[in-house]
Amino acid sequence: MKYSTLYYRPETNDLQVWSERRNYLPLLEGVSNLDGVVLDIGAHTGSFSILAAQLGFKDIRAFEPEQENFDLLRLNVKESKFSIFCSRYMVLGEYLISSVNVGEATHKESLFVDAGFNRAAHSVYSSVTRREGQIVRCDLFYEVLKDSSPTVVKIDVEGAESAYVFSADYLTSVIRLGVELHPGHTNVLKKHEEIVSAGFELITPIDFDKYKGKCVLALYKRIGT
């Protein structure tokens, strides 16, 4: 369905996701190097990627593994007239790769898809509302970082961030990092401390005690930038 140059699915939370993209503005504002790579990991239907393009970023790479989301992502990117690279690969931490074909460049994993209102909530983790619907190709997080040397990284992967390694060695080029932390699969405070140890600080302070049992969007900048 098309509405004001936006493609989405009625009776889902697609429009809600688009309305929440303003929450990422602090992550993008103040970045002087608009030529640097922006990674959108868990791109849904393109809300963050298109926001970054609207703010002047020129090299944006969107990763979205779920087929319906990916199809809408490409439609919205085409409608936007921006040049955004779109990949249907799922980006995983190395600890979530369960089947690696030795000698093969492509890993494949199961993706559990929410068939109801929250169509954005597909995950490598199953739940009452998520059914196993797709086998998708995967890249490893550290390989994507190594290949792209991004300046800005946004991650919303419904709990799979628990297996991402946020080390200073991996994040050498990154000056802005936004991660939605999911407490069902991630020790939120421990993951926050890992990111801080890699040389980052919160852009906006967060009282993590208030988010016990809830998802929290944490936006970071490299200390000194």
In oligomeric terms, what are we looking at?
single chain
Shape: globular
CATH class: Alpha Beta
CATH homolog superfamily = Vaccinia Virus protein VP39
Number of strands: 12
> How big is the Rg?
17 Å
Query: Biggest sheet, in brief?
Result: 7 strands, mixed
Lateral arrangement of strands in the main beta sheet: 5-4-3-9-10-12-11
Overall mean pLDDT stands at 88
Which ranges are low-confidence, i.e. pLDDT below 50, for 5 or more consecutive residues? Answer: 99-104
Number of helices: 6
State the order of secondary-structure elements, H for helix, E for strand: EEHHEHEHEEEEHEEHEE
Overall tally of domains = 1
**Portion of residues in helices?**
10-25%
CATH topology: Rossmann fold
What's the architecture, going by CATH? 3-Layer(aba) Sandwich
Category from helices, strands and their pairing = alpha/beta
3D architecture notes:
With 225 residues, the protein is of the alpha/beta class. The chain is built from six helices and twelve strands. The strands form three sheets. A seven-stranded mixed β-sheet has the order 5-4-3-9-10-12-11, sandwiched between helices. A three-stranded mixed β-sheet has the order 6-8-7. Strands 1-2 form a two-stranded antiparallel ribbon.
Summarize the entry for a quick read:
The protein is an alpha/beta fold and 225 residues long. It contains six helices and twelve strands.
Task: List its salient traits.
Rossmann fold, 225 residues, single chain
